[in-house]
Amino acid sequence: MADSYEPGAVPDGPLLEVEDLYVEFRTRDGVAKVLNGVSYHVDAGETLAVLGESGSGKSVTAQAIMGILDTPPAVVTGGEIRFHGENLLAVGEERRNEVRAEGVAIIFQDALSALNPVYTVGFQIEEQLRVRQGMSRRDARDRAVELLDLVRIPNAARRVRQYPHEFSGGMRQRAMIAMSLALDPEVLIADEPTTALDVTVQAQIMDLLKEIQVERRMGLILITHDLGVVAEVADRIAVMYAGRIVEHADAVSLYRTPGHPYTAALMDSLPRLDQKGSTLNTIKGLPPSLLNIPPGCPFHPRCPRAEDRCAVEVPPDHRLGLGRTSKCHFAEELVSRV
Amino acid sequence: MSERSLRSEKSGTERSLRSEKSGTERSLRSEKSGTERSLRSENPGTEPILEVRDLVKHFPVRVGVLFKHTVGQVRAVDGVSFDLNKGETLGVVGESGCGKSTLAQVLMRLEPPTSGTARFNGRDIFAMRGAELRKLRRSIQIVLQDPYTSLNPRMTVGDIVGEPFEIHPEVAPKGSRAGKVRELLDVVGLNPEHLNRYPHQFSGGQRQRIGIARALALRPDVIICDEPVSALDVSIQAQVMNLLGDLQSEFGLSYVFIAHDLSVVRHLSDRVAVMYLGKVVEIGTEEEIYNHPMHPYTQALLSAVPVADPTVRGQRQVIRLEGDVPSPVDPPSGCRFRTRCWKAQEICAQEVPELEPRGGGHPSACHFAEERSVVP
Amino acid sequence: MTDPTTAAAGTAPDLGASAYVTAPEHQMSGPGKPRSLWSDAWRDLRRRPLFIIAGAVIVLLAIIAIFPSWFTSVDPNHKDLSHSRETPSGAAWFGYDLQGRDVYARVVYGARWTLLVGLSASVLTVLIGAFFGIIAGYFGRWIDGLISRIGEIFFGLPFVLGAIVILNLVRNAEIRGALPIVFAVVASIAVLSWPVAMRIMRSAAITAKQQDYVKAARALGASAPRIIFKHLLPNCLAPVLVYGTIALGAFIGAEATLSFLGIGLRDPAVSWGVMISDARNYVRVAPHMLLFPAGFLTATVLAFVMLGDAVREALDPKLR
């Protein structure tokens, strides 16, 4: 079983699957229900975008997958995370560590704080190669240069000896990607990888991620709040709100006919590049406090479509065709309107 | 919404009515100086409220612990000129390190300029001292980027929004201040009864509204917005942008709107200046910059913005720039963009391209300026 | 560092639970008159049991210090060698010391000098340190350089040696009477300790100065004193307050050390420090000589630490 995640093995089910995940943050002020039954999956060579605003739980899901939630305050209270069918929440720390480096890797928004400032970039890549794969110092160095080259860092042989602070923002994110690729993960989680970067650099990094993903047939989970970035790279999109996936669809259908009022409102509130608009459509009010999530549909206090039942009945997943779901009582109506 | 569109229609007709007059004015002015004219807005008749000329801000790079010596200069802002008209929004876009935030700090007189002038209603703000400077503070205000650090965590909202009145007691007599603070909170869409709360009790968007209320307190003519919405979530960002738009029409404000998000800038701006490594590389109306960009950098910047439409994926022409922005300590000779530019030739390394109208269009600083439409 | 992946994971973006909680409804701040930080802090303090207990202890000690005759009618300096090292009894609750003096009376009378030295030394230290620290932190440049260098000179002096030098100078100047001696001890402690408070304040001020709210205040035209008092001070006070309360205990101890060396307080100024150092050689035969003054000392220091903690929390709206 331990070898089932070796590259080349043909998986039966999805590569990585999150099912009905519940996470709470037990704080001084009360219990914040951060994830309330999140399910998604990603297959080899596929890009799943997890779209949401801050506090929607998109990053927490990723951290739960990686097993790096801060406990306390975070507690996983239910659900499963399956990698090649193996429930990661049920295995020991040792097995978790194995999967963490060689099965699923993660890159963060802030590459500067994710790199250790007192070691050279090369050392940080070599370290895991030596520890995990038993490579010699020399082989590890060669591999590190190769990896930096792969992420198109110029002068890789020289750069490998430099410290993170000597890298520019874009270079650091490239170095982070190189590091996450060192052990050939099958799934890469990119948590807001370009949010801290300028738009021209963002384009470079997204190109690079896309290219590497296609080349290695990696599963990519892209966590972001940027509707533009999502539209450019995602195959499927999961929209999160208040710790739930409110809509799940392939990219083209989601943008053409949003199946949830929240998705629709989010798209409407974007300023446009191609024309100077008049007043923007906004979503009234604020995202709910996770300490006190509204009953029924959590979006109902802000929803233009809300009716009385929305405040009482929690909307189930409505199926809207192949692999498409929406947690809205009026999902069918919303989609058929166009 | 209808009000805004009406307004823009009106200004459109005004524009065409006045174009005749402006033609004559322009020819008169052109004798004076070509570049001078080009910096002015297309909107004639309105007088510039803020005129910035050749603004330079260099930060010395010092080394040493006890005996510091200067080893170089960070050329954060290196010769920036523009006009801001009454009631207008001038957008300033550029990537990090282009000097747009330094520009805001210098214009607010938070940092002294290295050289150059900025005239507010004809008077040089860098020459102001004492009482005159205090008066200037009432006329130009700033909204800062980070809603989490821009409010003193140990002051109540009432104290924060009321602080301008304490610093400038002549604006409002003591008894009327609490009322004014409530009024301001109401104007920016906050509950006036919340004036005893502390900043941490508000969300990011609400905090940004508090920052805006503070900037509005002294009824300024100009507000410099330094990335006011870039730290906010999409849905909240739209609320704050609408608020800024509404306040502008309500109070006749002029904005210098600094941001890195090109869509946000387009939405709010009448004119746009594009900055790269301390210099303005292109300036023009929102329409000119976005629909008829002349400078290769502007084109690259616009083309790199991801479009929220998966159906055009792979069909858009995207100009991919190589590498990162060079260090402002040692910028490239000649045109600063030449190291990343696909059009660069020998002349670009030798001659600094002036910011002047090229190809019959608006001012751009490129030897090979050529219109190329990149926004779908 | 063993595994870069997990090391990187450890520094994941802010996971604080508060990041997921938006705009909590706060019960205590309803509509009404505008309030300020200090009045809110006071309202908050009055409801903290920690503050009430600490406050009660300190008030009691203050009363003992000011009116020792209310608590005992025995003369603390009355010697009766026949009672030497006698253990506590109905006549003398805390027993007698080596020279046959009533320990209870001495503890009561010692409160005055102990508190006086401890309090004034830490207040003076914090005042001097905070003043120079905030000046150095706010103005920076050469002012910071000058203050920091001077601070380093004082900081470099070994405490006991420095105090011996200073107090010997005073002694040679023929200073007599209890108050001037107390003042000399307090001054020597403060002169040698202020650089610590200065450094704490300075770094806090430098951090606070770079915050955007200071930028916003400057953009409004706020004067330097206004920025220092309204914006820097409330945000920099907490670490110095904590230092002050901890230092209070240390200073009472330092005073005891100096007394033990014969250059600190001396009769008629009795302090707990003096009593503790007197008792040191008799811990086994007469532990009561040490336990009672030491117990009072501990309770006092604890009360001040609790007070400092309560004040620090009350001044931070986020912790309310």
Automatic annotation (TrEMBL), chain A:
PROSITE patterns the UniProt entry points to: ABC_TRANSPORTER_1, ABC_TRANSPORTER_2
Record Pfam families: ABC_tran (PF00005), oligo_HPY (PF08352)
GO CC annotation, single: plasma membrane
GO biological process: peptide transport
Subcellular location: Cell membrane
Highest taxon listed in the record's lineage: Bacteria
Main localization (coarse): membrane
Keywords linked to the UniProt accession: ATP-binding, Cell membrane, Membrane, Nucleotide-binding, Transport
Membrane-topology descriptor: Peripheral membrane protein
CDD domains given in the database record: ABC_NikE_OppD_transporters
Span of domain ABC transporter: 16-267
Gene Ontology terms for molecular function: ATP binding; ATP hydrolysis activity
UniProt cross-references to PANTHER family, sorted A to Z: DIPEPTIDE TRANSPORT ATP-BINDING PROTEIN DPPD, OLIGOPEPTIDE TRANSPORT ATP-BINDING PROTEIN APPD
Family: Belongs to the ABC transporter superfamily.
Protein name: Oligopeptide transport system ATP-binding protein
Organism: Actinophytocola algeriensis
UniProtKB/TrEMBL annotation, chain C:
Every ABC transmembrane type-1 domain range: 111-308
InterPro entries: BP-dependent_transpt_permease, MetI-like, MetI-like_sf, OppC_N
Keyword Metal-binding on entry: no
Keywords: Cell membrane, Membrane, Transmembrane, Transmembrane helix, Transport
Keyword Chloroplast among record annotations: no
Single Gene Ontology BP annotation: transmembrane transport
UniProt membrane topology term: Multi-pass membrane protein
Superkingdom field: Bacteria
Compartments (UniProt record): Cell membrane
Major localization listed first in the record, in broad terms: membrane
Transmembrane spans: 50-71, 113-139, 151-171, 177-197, 240-265, 285-311
Gene Ontology cellular component list: plasma membrane
Pfam families per UniProt: BPD_transp_1, OppC_N
Family: Belongs to the binding-protein-dependent transport system permease family.
Name of the protein in its database record: Oligopeptide transport system permease protein
Species assigned in the record: Actinophytocola algeriensis
